[in-house]
């Protein structure tokens, strides 16, 4: 039988450890233990945290893909705890969204991937984003255009151009993710890329690249000569 957190030495309790030694001193299971708050009668919150990590293969990116129903499969994780964990993971994702600096200059496809990888790599559904650039290829803004299911999302070329004009963008880069992990562009990916490129040419707005994001890698239409 595991000791409850209240039975631990004060300096070893996750909350006290965080206060005294800083958040970086805690392991993943301890951080999850704080979110879980208190354990069941026969296990501590940190034990539950370890089991939760094990459920996700000890991978925080995989954990971020689990929804509330997935989290509740673990004995000891009820609706309230599952919602708290899901909310914390979403806040982490949104922090990454807020962190990406504007006015960054895009010099290569890797620069784009570094902006979108933290936002899209662990999503269980597809999202389509646009990066708006000035004449110096510096980021003016970015926006999520659409969100779909596991295998696709709808992209409205008219909305892409409308937003590019509103931001007075000289160039755009579009990006979406493949939850399956397969980086090969689909036929629909290639068609929408061509449509956006053609529409941009009419409006003097250059499509500089289309990036596909997976868990760890990315595919660039420009790098592969597909633009």
Describe this structure in words.
By secondary structure, the chain is α+β, with helices and mostly antiparallel strands. The chain has 2 domains: 5-97, DNA polymerase, domain 1 (Orthogonal Bundle), CATH 1.10.150; 102-220, Cytidine Deaminase, domain 2, CATH 3.40.140.10. 43% of the residues lie in helices and 15% in strands. It contains 9 helices and 5 strands. A 5-stranded mixed sheet has the order 2-1-3-4-5, with helices on both faces. Strand 1 and strand 2 form a beta hairpin. Helix 2 crosses helix 3. The radius of gyration is 21 Å and the shape is elongated. The chain starts with 13 loop residues before the first helix and ends in a 7-residue tail after the last strand.
Features:
Cytidine Deaminase, domain 2; DNA polymerase, domain 1; 227 residues; alpha+beta; 2 domains; elongated; 9 helices; five-stranded mixed beta sheet
Summarize the topology.
Layout: H1 14-21, H2 28-36, H3 45-55, H4 60-65, H5 68-71, H6 79-99, H7 109-120, E1 127-133, E2 139-147, H8 157-166, E3 171-177, H9 187-203, E4 206-213, E5 218-220
């Amino acid at each position: 039988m595991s000791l409850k957190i209240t039975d631990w030495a004060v300096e070893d309790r996750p909350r006290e450890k965080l206060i005294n030694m800083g958040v970086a001193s805690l392991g993943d299971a301890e951080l999850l233990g704080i979110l879980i708050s208190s354990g069941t009668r026969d296990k501590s919150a940190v034990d539950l945290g370890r089991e939760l990590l094990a459920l996700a293969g000890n991978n925080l990116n995989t954990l971020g893909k689990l929804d509330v129903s997935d989290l509740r499969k673990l004995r000891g994780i009820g609706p309230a705890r599952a919602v708290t964990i899901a909310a914390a993971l979403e806040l982490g994702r949104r922090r990454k969204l807020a962190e990406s600096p504007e006015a960054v200059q895009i010099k290569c496809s890797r620069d784009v991937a570094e902006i979108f990888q933290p936002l899209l790599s662990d999503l269980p559904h597809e999202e389509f984003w646009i990066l708006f650039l000035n004449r110096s290829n510096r980021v003016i803004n970015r926006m999520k255009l659409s969100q779909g299911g596991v295998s696709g999302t709808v992209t409205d070329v008219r909305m892409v151009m409308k937003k590019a004009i509103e931001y007075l963008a000289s160039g755009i880069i579009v990006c979406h993710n493949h939850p399956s992990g397969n980086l090969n562009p689909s036929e629909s990916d290639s068609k929408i890329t061509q449509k956006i490129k053609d529409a941009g040419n009419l409006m003097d707005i250059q499509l500089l690249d289309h990036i596909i994001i997976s868990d760890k890698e990315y595919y660039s239409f420009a790098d592969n000569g597909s633009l």
